[in-house]
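Recall that a protein's primary structure is simply its ordered list of amino acids. Everything else, from secondary elements to tertiary packing, is in principle encoded there. The following example makes that idea concrete.
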Amino acid sequence: MRSVWVWILVVVALGLSACGDRVEVPPAHVGKILTKNGYKPETVPPSKFRLDMCFYYCDKLITLATADFGHREQFQLFMPKDQLNMSFDVRMTGAVNNEMIDNIFDRIPPTNNNISVNHIYGTYAQPVIRDVVRRVVAKYSINEIASSREALSQELFSEVKEALKGTPIVIKRLGLADVQFPKVITEAKERAAERRELIEQEKAQFEIQKIQMERDLEREKMNRAIAREKALGQKEVNDLLAKSVTDKYLAYRTLEVLEAMAESDNKVFVPVEALGTIGLQQAVFSNEVKHVAKKRQ
């Protein structure tokens, strides 16, 4: 009886050892089953399952990430047109080419049952990208790069995308970043910016002075207009007096002045001959001017 139980335990142990491992293909990954004769042809989508039973050689699940990845390439490039060195980064977003998955499994060895995207990128994409970027950027001067970074980024993206056709890596986005211009170029740009700032300040000051001068000019025009109106008014008064003050009117007014003097306590005796003098006539005329001016008011 005891031997029967021993055989049962042995059979159970062998059965348990023959069961395949529980494995998982995580999200944004694909997998393939690696057998002793190579990969099975079908690709396994994200899922959990158990491998086939085995005794001597057990199958393995090899996974590969298919999610988008970000990457940065750093450059120190000698610019032929400027004879200067310039540093910059190229940042990109890429992904595994789904059409090349079987090729990747066949050509890239796994590490810890996983094929690294970095390994794929370093093998197929990095040498191509660095070569294309150096070739394209070296065509331009530093000033051209500074003024046309967006256009240059678009050109780099197009050139790299074309160069990577038929490889396991697809580039979705790519552009220049963190451009470090040579110190001599940076200082020249700073001086140019300072000059532009001074010019803008001079223009602003000129506009202020222009407004002040225009205001002064308007004030002078107004003053001249006022003076002209005053002169015209005085001329009208003089013309009116010239027309209304005749010799007969002056003689009449002279008699009125004499009558007023006669009634005043402050009497002054004037010789009859002095009545026709210029002085008396001027006095009478001045009084008439005041009289006319008072009436106009």
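The beta strands are 22-25, 29-35, 38-39, 47-50, 60-65, 69-79, 84-96, 114-115, 169-180. Residues 199 and 236 are 55 Å apart (CA to CA).
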